[in-house]
Structure prediction request, 449 residues.
Amino acid sequence: RMGREGPTIALLPWGNVLEDYLDTIGVSLEAFCTNFTGSWMFGYVDALRNAGVRTVLVCVSARVTVPSRFTHLPTGATICVLPAPGIYRAIQRQMIKPYRRSVRQAFRDVRGARLLLFPLFAVLRQVMGYLCTPLWLLARELRREGCSAIVCQEYEYPRFDVCTLLGRLMGLPVFATFQGGDYQRSYLERFVRPLTMRASAGLIIAPRTEIRRVLTRYNVPSARIAQIFNPIDLAAWTADERDAARARLGISGEARVVVWHGRVSIRQKGLDILLDAWERICHERVGQHLWLLLVGTGQDADELRRRIGAKQLQQVLWVDHFVHERAVIRQYLSAADVYAFPSRHEGFPVAPIEAMMCGIPVVAADANGIPDILAGGEAAGGLIVPRDDVAAFAQALGRLLDDPSWAHELGERARRRVESCFSLEAVGEQLRTFLETRAEASAPPALRR
Prediction:
């Protein structure tokens, strides 16, 4: 059971193997394990540590051959990297895009004589998500670390299903968070997922819309769901001096600056909407000193570069690499007057919360989590507009760019909102209380206190 003596939990991230995510942002496995901080996971680590809970991050990789252990320098957390099973590696070698939903998109050269293997490829695509977790090695590490619970990123993913089974076999409660994965990738999940959702100890879900979806679709008892926000280290996100931040970028103090930061995935992050809105803003404000600052890279970096060039946008400054150091991100945010968040699909995004803590007002599309982060709209420091609405997004940005005093007031409200609702201390206590309560409730009667 989880007790006040200081429990340890295992936190397992989404994805078949860790490099499927890291490769898209240009971060090495070693860098992730030693100094990476740009993730909700390490916010959880910090928050839980504040509440007296130790976290072991357990990842799977196809690039290690034996279990490897690292110490994450910024948080002190243990990171255990387990080798992917041989059967998964064999399937992976035949694939080009493992997460695609069709056989032809996922596997190499499904034509000619290989068409005879199409039924086999179809089966492999369905089951590969269930074959990527080395259960025996994972069980050994859970025992070695003395873990009293398992927390998975995303319940709509096969790893959650296999961990729920493993938890039953080991007598460990299994939890899951929601970070955006609200869809299934295989038909097999349709049959397995309802069982594992009801067998799990609890679900940590921040957006109210997602809570309603889970309650309706899976009939999970409401007591097993907790609305807990993703945390942020308030001390790490205090804004730098604005003129100094701008001087480092070569931006004058008189300019009006809009900033966005994150992973460059054009469709998901709505970057096409942002560029179209920025084009309108510049066209309507000819002669004004305006800048759009983009910070980040990803799988669609080449396409983003093409779009910027095609629109001939001259007032765009793009830092085309993935920045995960909090101090560096804070410098970019501190140079801005307004934060833009045009995403179409999110779980519970951390990026706008980071901007809000730096005292920057937010213009955001109404993706999952945004109505919760900006509950009250202007009272919480931001403007919410419909997704895919270029005109509305441009109008909201323009309102803040044209009225610096109002933008400053919204920025102050944004900072107060974060301080009251998203601190490590507040979220850490909520997490520990929920994990302890649900672990106790889900234990067999003979093991309850």
User: Anything to note?
Assistant: Residues 424-442 form the longest helix (19 residues). The chain has a mean pLDDT of 91. The two ends are 9 Å apart (CA to CA).
